Amino acid sequence: MRVKDLYAKEGGTFPDPITKLKWDYAKDGKVDSHAVAKEINGYFTEDIAEHPVDKKAYKKETLVPNFVFLLADGRTACGNWLYSGSYTEAGNMMARRDKTPVASCNIFPRWGYAWPLNRRIIYNRASVDPNGKPWDPKRAVITWDGSKWVGDVPDNAVPPMALPNGKFPFIMKPDGVASFFGPGLADGPFPEHYEPLECPIEKNPLSSQRINPATPLFKGDLDKYTTCDPKFPFVATTYRLTEHWQTGLMTRYQSWLVEAEPQMFVELSVELAKLRGIKNGDPVNISSPRGKMWAKAMVTNRIKPFTVAGQTVHLVGMTWHYGWLVPKDGGDSSNILTPSIGDANTLIPEYKVFLVNVTKEERPKVEKKPEAKAEPKAEKKPEPKPEAKPVPKAETKK
User: Fold this and answer.
1) 82 in helix, strand or coil?
2) Which residues are within 8 A (CB) of 336 and not within 5 positions of it... i.e. 6 or more apart?
3) Nearest 5°: CA angle at 254, between 250 and 258?
4) Cα–Cα–Cα angle for 151, 154, 158, nearest 5°?
5) Among 20, 84, 285, 324, which one is least packed by beta carbons within 10 Å?
6) What is the per-residue pLDDT across 74-92, written as a single tens digit (0 to 9) for each?
7) 104, 63, 56, 69: which is closest to 86 by C-alpha?
């Protein structure tokens, strides 16, 4: 609204897209989120005597029931067809909190809203056979009862594929069936489980091949790797922070966000903290074959030890938002520790798992050299004032 006011006062090269923009989402000087949600849902822009879908009449500004009721002739408007049905004349569907499930499966259709059409599972007709009977009757997502679909909202409400006018479930493909794309890939297209390059166990429990054989390994000075190494017994993973989303390079210049997340930290489980004698807030060193860095310990129940191949594996978590210039003494980025290896096709880095060690250690202090004391300046003796000569008395005339 302030931008519109500026254009109205000062003009510009082409102000119409701003000054004539329909932007009536304010209420008492604040954004009305309900008005925004209704606009996204869609509404009728004029009275309709008989809608072609249900043959009913609708008044101007009535919210559309869902995207099926949107018209291509301008008699309806909609901010996003995927969310059409999320805020109807029945109210805010997104705010629903009814925990009543579908009888046959663990789906809660009256809890919130799922796009599109409140469908909870996309391509859900793939869960039935050509006659519409569930492949797993005990956990039926959807079922054809002979005349209609029962359960989740069907992804395309046509009959099952074996019946007249029926269609295959993958409606976004011309043939209606799923497919794997393989040409040009270094591996695949079928998925295979490989362990990461740096791994706390010696063998892949699901295959004789431990790591992906199609992944290139680099041989530079910084490309140092290890596995099953007692020097680096813990697994580390990295992640973003809400307060410093993405790189954080810009957000760390915001004083209030730096106040919320001021320093590099490492999350570790209560069990690992006890094992290493680390308390919440202690300064610790984290090291990998590639480098070493300092962080504050965050002891939390959010992270738990794993049992992998019969042995206990401890996990630590770190963010990579710090480093560079701001904030002062914020710490380094965890990318100092991560390996330079990626997946076989796109080389997306393996930042989510690598080996480290964590030790309690005081942050090294920089000793300040004592400032040289300045020699006291010699006091200047006040210069003697010249003696005042007696002023001769004026002679008086007789």
Assistant:
1) helix
2) 290, 291, 292, 293, 323
3) 105
4) 125
5) 20
6) 999 999 999 999 999 999 9
7) 63
